[in-house]
Amino acid sequence: MKLAMGIVGLPNVGKSTLFKILTAKPVMIANYPFCTIDPNVGVVTVPDERVARLAKLSNSKKTVPAVMEFFDIAGLVRGASKGEGLGNAFLSHIKEVTAITHVVRIFESTEITHVENSLNPIRDIEIINAELIFKDLDLVEKRLKRAEAEAKTGQKAAQKDAEVLKKMLVKLNEGSLITEFADEPVAREMQLLTTKKQIFLLNGNESEVTPELRQKIASLGAEYVVANLGEAEALPELITGAYRTLNLISFLTTGEDETRAWTIRQGETAPQAAGAIHSDFEKKFIRAEVVFWEDLINAGGWAQARQKGVLRTEGKGYVVRDGDVMEIKHG
Fold first, then answer.
1. Which end is more exposed in the chain, N or C (fewer Cβ atoms within 10 Å of the end residue's Cβ)?
2. What predicted TM-score, i.e. pTM, was given to this entire model?
3. 125-144 burial, b if ≥16 CB within 10 A, otherwise e?
């Protein structure tokens, strides 16, 4: 599956610096708001030692790690949902991503200006989330009117949509994100910003994270990573944190041609995993040969794993585990 993270936050909190660290792709960084005009997009490999070790075992010609796209989206400000700053254009970019990396400045500095003229991470979080909520409120209200009109003509799908939209509207009017509605068909169709899960990147040092800030992030049902972006060289914990936040796992395939990591959602079955490789494989799935990656390496190869009894044949109901190495049999 394609995994895309949108980097959001107020101006001058470290978004473009984070993007540069993650992708090693040069972007313009300046000590003034709105220096990122179009969203930079970079592809980041997901850290995974298993790929290299399996490639060595199989003597693979090519290794293909899982990847994640990061969109560096220009800083939002108060009123962005109504067009303030560079407003609506950037909110529309967030619609395209799977989840949000929310960068929050926790470091003090007299040299780097703060768009709100003071350091207050909790306030900054609330500003960004309020703009996402205001944008979605407008969309949900308009969509609800349409759904109610369609429901009056007897369209059952529209009736269901209207019920869900009303519940979403209540939560949004309360000032809440609505991640619990992420899997509702109408929410997926609308690509609502407030249904997307967030992982917080706190730019500063661990000593600058207050109990109140931890509590605020916990109340949003989110994880956080602390990094001093002025000193950081790599942030694998952000990528692995994003996997946890989105309930994602990797399974692997290995052979002489290539060793590759594939991303799927936790709880998906062997046919669904096969579909990540090719959609036809899911439709024509017969069975899968499965071995845990460490068992395969310890055995010394597929034939030896079969002899030791650690290689299994699994059917359509098998739920794939993180680290499974699979060979798909299909029609």
1. C
2. 0.84
3. bebbbbbbbbbbbebbeebb
Diameter of the chain measured on Cα atoms: 67
* Alpha-carbon gap, residue 271 to 319, rounded angstroms: 9
238 and 97 share one domain: yes
Angle at CA 151, nearest 5°, toward 148 and 157? 110
Q: Are residues 285 and 226 in the same domain?
A: no
Asked if the structure places residue 116 within a domain, the reply is yes
Query: Are the CB atoms for 36 and 28 separated by under 8 Å?
Result: yes
Domain interval for residue 321: 267-330
Same domain, 272 and 238: no
Q: Give the DSSP letter string of 310-328.
A: --EEE-TTPBPPTTEEEEE
Same domain, 275 and 239: no
